[in-house]
Amino acid sequence: MSTASITAVPAEILGEVFRFLFIGTLVIPSPKFATLWSISQTCSQWRGVALDLRYLWNNVAVGAPAHLHECRPILHLVDQCLLRSRGIPISVQIYESHLWDLCGGSPLTKLLIPYAAKIQCLSLGASIDLSELVTPALEELETTICGPGATELISLIKRSKCTILRLRVYRGEIGCHRLLKVTPSLEEFRTDSTLPVPSIHRISRGTICPALRSVHCQIMSRKTFDEFIDMLSSRSTSTTFSPIVDVSLVLEFHLGVWGMKKIRALQDQGIEIYVKEFMKQSPDNDSDAGDEPGGYNSDKVCSLIFQ
Q1: DSSP labels for 150-201?
Q2: C-alpha–C-alpha distance, residues 243 and 220, integer Å
Q3: Which pTM does this prediction carry?
Q4: How many CB atoms lie within 10 A of CB 202?
Q5: Which InterPro entries match (predicted)?
Q6: Bridge partners of 140?
Q7: Per-residue confidence (pLDDT) for residue 94, from 0 to 100
Q8: pLDDT tens sequence across 186-238
Q9: Are residues 218 and 249 in contact, defined by beta-carbon separation less than 8 angstroms?
């Protein structure tokens, strides 16, 4: 393409092309980011259009460096992207990598401090020092077992006086109950571990998470399943707390006819439920064990979708 044809493209059309190609998370480094960065340097017009589209730069993921010498260049590029967002709400995701601990001086924390007030979504796959961050606009928080512990996250929430609407805790329980106690405005909670029984009871009474509408978690026993179902029924008939209408469960036991009846009863109350039965083969059980209560007869995932 010649220079004349480039400059002849109207800025509005260029903007639409950039929106179509690059809206979404920018993983740094990645081919998508490299392409956007190169295109934004094509000429003064293209650079101007790219810089005007602040939302091209406000959703970034700090990639996992392969070598120690890559850490600081990655952080520099992330900083440049967030700088180009120019004050609009930002989303930051930090991939798991032990190399960040070797950089010294908490480089990830130093990167985020200038933009902390605008962070709306924060995903932490690496353990970083949160003590200097104040994130009053934070609405969505995600962490893994490799990220900060519950104590650090609770301190961040309390210090920032933020309103957490969506909370995701993956790869093991890291103080779920404690986190739920400090997020009264929470609307969505996701975890790949078991929702603690004390949390189920308090959610049922509305003493924690009165605004909760979506839950995705694991259930390991029939007793806990019964308590969870009772909680959903209680919330669905409450006039004080919001009903929980979106539920996804992973069960480590056979649901059975009794469980399916309970699920269908909730469906009649307007609750949408997605259930997976994760059934592990037991060496002590024979092929008919799955017909017995609690028996496991296969190493597979069975999906039951109720609509």
Answers
A1: HHHHHHHHHHHT----EEEEESS-SSHHHHHHT-TT--EEEEEEEPPHHHHH
A2: 23
A3: 0.83
A4: 17
A5: F-box_dom
A6: 121, 166
A7: 92
A8: 999 999 888 888 999 999 999 999 999 999 999 988 999 999 999 999 999 88
A9: yes
